[in-house]
Amino acid sequence: MDKIISFDPIIGDEPKVLILGTMPSVKSLEINEYYGFGRNHFWKIMSDLFMFDKDLSYEEGKRVLIKNKIALWDVIYSCEREGSLDKNIKNI
């Protein structure tokens, strides 16, 4: 099992809300995007809350979060994990 490393935070100058995850999924790590797994509802929820097209590019979605003072980060910097389930996280 290889060590995996999370992403840098998405953060603007004066965030008001911090959304914390654990560790990006295998798919998210593969495409280098927070909540990149197609069935994850994060970006749909954000698009509903902030009224933007859920099909915006990842970079545009990040800009919307920053504009709305939302920061996004994971609580685990690195770990070992088989698959994407949090219950499989080891060696944090």
**What is the radius of gyration computed over CA atoms, rounded to a whole number of angstroms?**
14 Å
* Strand order, sheet with most strands: 1-4-5
Structural class: alpha+beta
Shape: globular
Quick one: biggest sheet? Answer: 3 strands, antiparallel
> Based on the structure given, which CATH architecture is correct?
3-Layer(aba) Sandwich
CATH superfamily: Uracil-DNA glycosylase-like domain
Key terms for this structure?
single chain, 92 residues, alpha+beta, Uracil-DNA Glycosylase, subunit E, three-stranded antiparallel β-sheet, two-stranded parallel sheet, 5 strands, 27% helix, 21% strand, globular
Describe this structure in words.
The protein contains three helices and five strands; from the N terminus they run ββαααβββ. Strand 4 and strand 5 (89-90) form a beta hairpin. The chain has a single domain, classed as Uracil-DNA glycosylase-like domain (Uracil-DNA Glycosylase, subunit E, 3-Layer(aba) Sandwich), CATH 3.40.470. It starts with a strand and ends with a strand. It is of the alpha+beta class and 92 residues long. The strands form two sheets. The protein has a three-stranded antiparallel beta sheet with strand order 1-4-5, with no helix packed on it. Helix content is 27%, strand content 21%.
Q: Can you describe this structure in just a few lines?
A:
By secondary structure, this protein is α+β, with helices and mostly antiparallel strands.
Topology:
Blueprint: E1 3-5, E2 17-21, H1 26-31, H2 42-50, H3 58-67, E3 70-74, E4 78-81, E5 89-90
Parallel strand pairs: 2-3
Antiparallel strand pairs: 1-4, 4-5
